[in-house]
Design a protein that fits this description.
globular, 8 helices, alpha+beta, Glutamine Phosphoribosylpyrophosphate, subunit 1, domain 1, binds aspartic acid, 8-stranded mixed beta sheet, 5-stranded mixed beta sheet, single chain
C-alpha cells in the first residue's frame, strides 16, 4: 500500500488531502457479494485485471441456484420466464450489455463478448440469445423447481407488490480496482420478480446500473431500476465524485436526488455503491437494510450501508 498526495482536490477546502491508495480492492452489493468477492480476489490478489475479476466474481452469483435474484434460480416474470439483464465496463470506457436474455446461465460473460467481439454495446432478447449460442454458451433452463413453486403460489393472487429489501429484487453489482490502478465493474440480475414480460431494468443500462470512468471512479446500483434510470444513477454518482465528492457523499446525493423526484419513497428502495480511483469506497441507500461486501488484502467483510430512512 502506498501513500500519495491525492489527485483529488476537495471543492470546499481547495487543498490536497493525503489519501492511502487501497489496491487491489473489490466491493459488491449484498451478502451474496462475499463468495463472489472471494473469487474476484483469487484474480486480483495475483495481479490479475479488474475486468477478469468482476466477470469471474459475479459468475459465482449467477450460477448459484439458491440465489433467487440473479442468473440460475432467478425469479421469473409474471408469465414464468426467467429473463436476465447484465453489463460490464472496463477502464477504457469499453462496455458490453445484454438485456432480456433467456436460457443462458452467465449473461455477464455474454456481455463481455458483446464488448470484445462486436462493434456494439448492447444486445437484447432473441438476438442476444442467438449471439450467445453462436459464441458457444450452452442453452439451459434457468427456472428451478423452487422458483417455479414460488411463482405458482404468486399466480394465485397475481398481485405485484414490491417489498423493499426482500428477495423479490436484488442484483449483484461489483466494482474492482486492480494492482495496475485500473477500475472495472459488472452488474447482473434477473430483475424484479414477476415483472411484466419484456421489462428491462437499470442493471444492463450503462450509466444507470453501472458506470466506470478510470479517471475518477466507478459506481453501481441496486433496488428499483425504474427509479435509478430516472436519474441516470451510476453516471450521476461518478460525476459527483468527479466534482470532489467522496464515494459516500456521491451515493448520498444520488439517493437524495431520487427522493426529491418521488412524492413518496415509503415502498421504494435503491442503494448505490461507489469506488474511487484511490480505492476509497462508500454506499448509501434510501432505507436501511442494504449492505455490501468488501475484500482487500487484509479485510473481508460485510458492511451495512448508511441510509436516509429507517423502515
Ligand atoms: N435493479 C434491479 C432491477 O430493477 C433489481 C435490483 O437490484 O433489486 O431490475
Amino acid at each position: 500500500m502506498t501513500i500519495i498526495s491525492s489527485a483529488f482536490k476537495t471543492k470546499k477546502l481547495e487543498t490536497y488531502r493525503d489519501i492511502k491508495i487501497e489496491k487491489p480492492i473489490v466491493i459488491s452489493t449484498w451478502n451474496h457479494g462475499l463468495p463472489a468477492n472471494k473469487t474476484a480476489w483469487e484474480i486480483l490478489g495475483k495481479g490479475g485485471t479488474s475486468l477478469d475479476a468482476v466477470e469471474q466474481g459475479v459468475r459465482i452469483t449467477e450460477s448459484d441456484p439458491t440465489n433467487g435474484s440473479v442468473g440460475l434460480g432467478g425469479r421469473p416474470d409474471r408469465d414464468g420466464f426467467v429473463t436476465l439483464d447484465a453489463c460490464i465496463m472496463n477502464h477504457k470506457n469499453q462496455c458490453g450489455s445484454v438485456a432480456f436474455l433467456q436460457n443462458i446461465e452467465n449473461p455477464i460473460s455474454v456481455a463481455r463478448k458483446v464488448m470484445e467481439d462486436t462493434p456494439h454495446v448492447m444486445l437484447a432478447g432473441e438476438g442476444a440469445y442467438q449471439f450467445a449460442i453462436e459464441k458457444g454458451f450452452p442453452k439451459k433452463n434457468l427456472l428451478t423447481d423452487g422458483a417455479k413453486k414460488d411463482w405458482e403460489e404468486w399466480l394465485k393472487k397475481s398481485k405485484y407488490q414490491p417489498v423493499i429489501n426482500i428477495e423479490n429484487h436484488d442484483t449483484i453489482g461489483m466494482l474492482a480496482l486492480d494492482s495496475l490502478g485500473n477500475l472495472a465493474g459488472a452488474c447482473t440480475t434477473s430483475g424484479l420478480a414477476y415483472k411484466i414480460h419484456g421489462r428491462v431494468g437499470d442493471s444492463p443500462i450503462i450509466g444507470a446500473g453501472l458506470f466506470v470512468d478510470n479517471e475518477v471512479g466507478a459506481a453501481c446500483a441496486t433496488g428499483l431500476g425504474e427509479a435509478v434510470m430516472r436519474i441516470a444513477g451510476s453516471s450521476a454518482v461518478v460525476e459527483l465524485m468527479r466534482s470532489g465528492a467522496t464515494p459516500e457523499e456521491a451515493c448520498k446525493e444520488a439517493v437524495d436526488r431520487i427522493i426529491r423526484k418521488h412524492d413518496s419513497v415509503e415502498n421504494l428502495q435503491v442503494g448505490f455503491l461507489a469506488l474511487d480511483k484511490n480505492g476509497q469506497y462508500g454506499s448509501y441507500s434510501i432505507h436501511n437494510g442494504f449492505n455490501f461486501a468488501l475484500h482487500t488484502s487484509n479485510k473481508e467483510k460485510l458492511i451495512d450501508s448508511k441510509y436516509r430512512h429507517k423502515q
